[in-house]
Amino acid sequence: GKDFEDPNDPGRKPKPAEIEEISEKKRKRSILLQSAGTKLTKEFRSWWKQGDYVFRFQADGNHFRIWVSDDERPEEIELESRSTGLQWFLSFYLVFLVESDKEHDNTILLLDEPGLSLHPLAQRDLSDFFESLSNTNQIIYTTHSPFLVDADMLDRARKVFIDKDGTTKASSDLRAGSGDRRKSGAAYAVYSALNMNVAESLLVGCRPIVVEGPSDQHYMSMIKAYLIGQGKIAPKQELVFPPAHGASNARVVASILTGRDETLPIMLLDGDQAGKRMQKDMQNGLYQTEKEKVLVTDTYTSLENSEIEDLIPPELIVDAVDRIFRTPEQTLEETIKAGKPIVPQIEDWAAHQDVELESGWKVEVAKVVKRKVLNSGLSESQRPYSDIWLKMFTDLLKHQ
Predict the structure, then answer these.
(1) For the residues 112-135, what does the mean pLDDT come to?
(2) Are strands 294-296 and 159-162 parallel, antiparallel or unpaired?
């Protein structure tokens, strides 16, 4: 469908028959381009879920262009001016979807870190696309992204690592090559994929209560299980306790969870300075019309600057700390004072005893306490705490 050109006689004008032939070819080219653009638009939607894109092909002499528009930006823009992720996915889509039935039929596709330019949800689209391609081609790819690890198909995953002898190994044992989980390397992508899969399944149909940290999550899960076991509460929905990892992150986590069903989640914050400041900010902002959904521990502990640990019988926490941080000098039990927040006392004791409280120490203490309460329950002297727990959960369940 190009314009007329006679390489043997550059100055020659086309004859009427040649003009008609060229016009017919241009017409056919226009129809083919329009048909191809419509087909690509229709089929591309089945794989790329990040927008409703419309493609148009244009050919002008030796120049070929792809124009793209979408529901948010209806004006056409050349593909080269769109996001790198869209360009990458489209080129990959066109090459392998078309060629997998032709030149690439029965071939093995080796890909190194595919989809690096794609955002997380688009990487999941790419994973689904790979699943389709695997019907006609074997695909092997390397990745450090949890979004490209299918948690439902971990039997297909292999961990590649450098062995002690310096050689590179690949193993179906996803813990291979590292005895320390904190240094798990590539296996961390698998852990993350599993965590996302579990989190998504837990939050479906559940009522989230945002807490500040992982230790809060353990304590609240423990209290919920204890109260249900005692027949004191019967939640209509499963209660889950996603940690915000600090009061400053609580707003972001609440906003994300609100996007699921347009219902603001309940929040339980520490009564320390950071928690109270966040409570005030939330009640003046995101929770302005539902201030009662932002709770602080001080309401239930009768202490100022309390934390979740102050909702627990202190002897349980003291015993857990002394078990974890055994010292030849003074134990925590000998220094603890009633009527004061317990976490600052633990930190002061550790400083005077040269005990290093590593990052995450509160989580380890929470695990010990949780295990003991769920196995043995509360003693007679600790029973008043169950009344405190019941009052708190009664307030939480008001918003179900």
Answers:
(1) 82
(2) unpaired
